[in-house]
Amino acid sequence: MIGTIVLFFVGLFFGHFIPRIPWLILPRFKSWNSQFPQHPRPIPVDEFLIQRVLHMRLMHRLTWLFILIPLLFGWASLKYGIVSIGMGLWLASCWTLVNKLVSEIGGHPLYPYALAEELQLIRNQNQTDSACCDFPLPVWQIESVKCSSCQTVLMERYRPDLGRPRSDGRLKGLFRLLLTDGYPVIGRTPYVQSNIEPKPMSSEEE
After folding, report:
1. pLDDT by residue (tens digit) across 91-133?
2. pTM of structure
3. Pick from 160, 24, 19: which is nearest to 94 by CA?
4. CA 163, CA 182: separation in Å to the nearest integer?
5. What are residue 184's DSSP bridge partners?
6. Which residues does 144 contact at the CB level (< 8 Å), separation at least 6?
7. I need a surface site. Which of 10, 116, 128, 173 has the fewest CB within 10 A?
8. Mind giving me the DSSP string for 10-21?
9. Best CA proximity match to 189, nearest among 148, 168, 152, 160
10. Interior/surface letters 115-149, b for 16+ CB within 10 angstroms, e for the rest
């Protein structure tokens, strides 16, 4: 009986882990993160951040492909092998499938394409006369995108996982990511547009 329960939880773990391999493992390599500050420091809003958001969007979409692996192995285990492992694989992978469907249908994916566009807009506007201050330096902090020079909030959105190696260690960080699915721990704020406003003209410019 105990062995059956253990095998069930083994299947449950792998059914939960395997679909998430693309974004849990691939972006953590050192060569992929040399241009970023260490976790959890703020990330500058530049071309590398925008590229990383698009990469994480792609890797999360690969979940749809990787979810087939535990589904097929679960089906094979239920029919030809160990039923308890197969049941665990099926339950975990089906839960992942439902979770992804709810996220996509509900209109709140973790890395919408509009997020990359908005970050690019922030970057563009801070290189013009519409910038928030004279020396703008936008960074994505934990709770929002802010200018590190004048502390103006440019976009109100909690920072999700961006594929950097975790500062809390590999095992602890992996466990936390498995629990949160990459969402920010302190909040799941939906995507909102930036708060950039044109810089008011001085009396001399008028």
Report:
1. 999 999 998 888 888 767 889 999 999 999 999 988 888 888 8
2. 0.83
3. 19
4. 9
5. none
6. 153, 154, 155, 156, 157, 158
7. 128
8. HHHHHHHHGGGH
9. 160
10. bbebbeebbebbeeeebbeeebebbbbeebbbbeb
Q: What is the DSSP string of the chain?
A: -HHHHHHHHHHHHHHHHGGGHHHHTGGGSGGGSTTSPPTTS-EE-SHHHHHHHHHHHHHHHTHHHHTHHHHHHHHHHHHHS-HHHHHHHHHHHHHHHHHHHHHHHTT--SS-HHHHHHHHHHHHHTTSTTSSSSS--EEE-SS-EEETTT--EEE-------SPPPTT-HHHHHHHHHHHTTS-TT--PPP--B---PPPPPTTT-
Give the chain's length: 206
